[in-house]
Input
Amino acid sequence: MKMTATLTAALLATTVWATMAAAQTDLSMWYHGAGNPKEAAVLQTIIDDFNASQSDWLVAVESFPQESYNDSVVAAALAGNLPDIIDVDGPVMPNWAWSGYLQPLQIDETKIENFLPGPKGYWDGKLYSIGLWDAAVALVTRQSILDDLGLRTPTLEQPWTQEEFMGALEAAKATGTYDYPLDLGMAWTGEWYPYAFSPFLQSFGGDLVDRSTYLTAEGALNGDAAMAFGEWWQGLFANDLAPGTSQDPAARETGFQDGKYAFSWNGNWAAKNILETFDDTVFLPAPDFGAGPKIGAASWQFGVSSASKHPDGASAFIEFALQDKYLADFSNAIGLIPPTASAAQMTENYKDGGPMAVFYDLTKAQALVRPVTPGYVVEAKVFEKALADIANGADVADTLDAATDEINADIERNSGYGHSE
Output
């Protein structure tokens, strides 16, 4: 009798579970992180927890290599085959929203009140995406190098001025110890250029586009401040202060650790390896070139595609993923910056006194998102080519004027990308 009752209960539980699973509506998800097992494991944990937490939705993910991901999304959008949930690189989001690939999120925005600004994906006054991390760049060096060169250690409150920064590079060059004083990462291409280098332009007082209207690059990319930036940029390579566009990719990856460079302009994703190499590693704030120190902000974010027939379910998954424990899990797994202070305290690296805690402070104090406009995807490519050309000796004024004209022509072709005076 007891065995019969047990079997009946087990059968009933199985039937209930099967009924619940059958009642769950499938939600498809695309992700850019194929090939990163640690990242994939955290994401799968969130999906499994969400699927088990309720009886309405069942999320399944398909991952793509990052290099082909954006092209896959654009092709799927044109073919009408987008999944319910996609992730999108923060600065690309306005273009995808304007192009009709995304719809606004249906989440409780009080849940992101304490998020850093970078992970919040707003376009046209609406929240279209939200990130579970951010990324930051710092000037990486060693305290022993600063001491040997007799340099002041800059702080967030008192970053190096342009004069101090250039003095540091010249002092490093004068030792004859290094292949170059500064590694900018010129071997990296694509989004690295606008993410890592446009903050220098912005610190001079220029920009990729006039952010007051987003309707022109005139004056922003070719004004006096931009020209001063361009001359400074070209001087880095002309005076052998940094390797140029022919930098060996291997030297970018390990050159600082190998002693080739005194300073490296690099991101927090590379910080763990450097910390493991040198116990006196220090991460310095961006220099102030006159208009305040700047670094880039906004990384990959989650959004709901315009093709989703279940935006409520897709948004529910994204809102579920915003819990501090998941933000901390991603940070611990891949080294990126948690978007909340409370999540940071749950991590190995970003808690108070943690070896990478400075990156959270840098993001909070210095980060500036790339221009929030659908035209950014073109502006970024134009800027990349212009900086590479200037580094290779092209005339600064001619190059920046031509880049300005190209961006303005694109804005005009696209009727201002939805912006108005």
